[in-house]
Design goal:
elongated; mainly beta; 8 helices; five-stranded antiparallel β-sheet
Length: about 425
């Protein structure tokens, strides 16, 4: 690629230059002293990298991510299971099961833990921000040989006292966490178009509930050091007036898993990730490279950066001669000036609608181009995500940063030099 670029540049010098199709880059350099004094330009690709933000955050958070509604990335908390002892409540029964007789008030809970949220490095951000997008995944299993139905099946967050009991209001009802108006924060699970939540006999069902306010309160309470339980309640009806069997061991299990969307605030210091890629240079030996370096009239690094994230960016480029693992750890690296890029345009929910783009030209000197003249050079690209105005952003699986960097050299040639 680089040989072709240099040959094309030589061809542009004019008809007065002979031998414009050299067999090698070194042969091309041998022709630079021919003809009248003039300038020609050579552009060398340095880095063309696409950073998928979900991959970067996976590395930063140290936890796997999943995709939920609107392609939003999310963290899955550990599953906790509410157990309802159906057999112990209604007793062992075989025969026609009449739900008008075999029914009971269901109210059971399970305590969650902060460690079980699996937030990794996202923990501080989650504590400081409201969770705007969250789900509560349910996996409900009925071991009884009879269908179950729960009317007004609701789930809410309740504080737990030092001995492990859920806190209750006067009258014995759970003291559910409330919103700013004093209304209990509850999520209702029902069959589509109905008021009942049904579970088949000896079967199960899987549901996903929109639960941003409930999960936000669960997360905030746990990260604040409180003991918190998820409480499930409703009126349970057993059977459907057909023959069935209930044993003393039969249970209804409600496995609940909070899913927390990455709609959050990142630290003021930002989140940084980098990569290094080795690329072929112009493959000149030291004398020829020194000659080219001495001919540099001017040079610049050309950066074209597309930011498809709701966060601001700081982009740093380091270049070092030869092929190395990490350009940023090399003592003889050349560091280019940092470039800041504005956040993408977002909608009211913090989702990217229009990526932002920034072009920058960074002046280089002769010594700065030397790494590109040898057989190999390594370009390191470091991306730092910075909090936008308001600090909030929602990360989707499609969000990415594209960095395109090249070096443009203007060389003094001809005149017998």
């Amino acid at each position: 690629m680089h040989k072709a670029v240099l040959t094309t540049c030589l061809l542009s010098l004019g008809a007065g230059l002979t031998g414009c199709e050299p067999a090698s880059v070194t042969a091309a350099r041998d022709q630079l002293s021919k003809g009248p004094r003039r300038t020609f330009s050579a552009e060398i690709p340095v880095a063309v990298d696409t950073f998928v933000i979900g991959d970067l955050l996976t590395d930063w958070l140290g936890i796997p991510l999943i995709t939920i509604l609107d392609n939003l990335l999310a963290v899955e908390a550990n599953t906790q299971t509410i157990i309802v002892s159906v057999g112990d409540t209604v007793g062992a029964v075989t025969g026609v099961l009449d739900p008008s007789i075999l029914n009971f008030t269901l109210e059971e809970s399970v305590e969650f833990s902060a460690a079980g949220l699996n937030l990794g490095e996202f923990e501080d951000a989650a504590a400081d921000a409201s969770v705007n997008s969250a789900l509560l995944a349910l996996d409900v299993t009925n071991t009884a040989d009879a269908p179950l139905a729960v009317y007004n099946f609701q789930l809410g967050v309740v504080m737990v006292d030092p001995v492990g009991d859920t806190i209750r209001r006067v009258g014995g009802v759970p003291d559910y966490e409330t919103d700013g108006t004093g209304t209990p924060i509850l999520v209702t699970a029902v069959d589509p178009g109905d008021t009942v939540f049904s579970i088949p006999h000896s079967g199960s069902r899987v549901d996903t509930l929109l639960a941003a306010e409930l999960v936000d309160r669960l997360v905030d309470s746990l990260l604040a050091g409180s003991r918190v339980a998820l409480v499930g309640s409703g009126l349970a009806l057993v059977g459907d007036n057909t023959v069935g069997t209930i044993t003393g061991a039969d249970e209804l299990t409600i496995a609940a898993r909070p899913i927390i969307g990455l709609d959050f605030t990142i630290p003021q210091s930002g989140v940084t990730v980098d990569s290094s890629t080795a690329r072929p240079g112009l493959d000149l030996d030291d004398p020829n490279a020194a000659d080219i370096e001495s001919r540099v009239d001017s040079a610049a690094a050309l950066l074209d950066i597309t930011n498809g994230t709701p966060f601001g960016l700081a982009v740093d480029i380091d270049v070092v001669a030869d092929s190395v693992v990490d350009a940023f750890s090399e003592p003889n690296r050349i560091s280019l000036e940092s470039v800041n890029v504005a956040p993408a345009t977002v909608d009211a929910n913090g989702r990217v609608t229009v990526p932002s783009q920034s072009e920058a030209t960074i002046r280089l000197f002769g010594v700065d181009v030397r790494p590109f003249l040898g057989e190999w050079f390594t370009a390191g690209v470091r991306i730092t995500l910075l909090p936008p105005a308001g600090g909030r952003g929602a990360i989707r699986a499609t969000d990415q940063v594209i960095v395109d960097v090249s070096t443009l050299m203007h060389l003094r040639v001809g005149g017998g030099q």
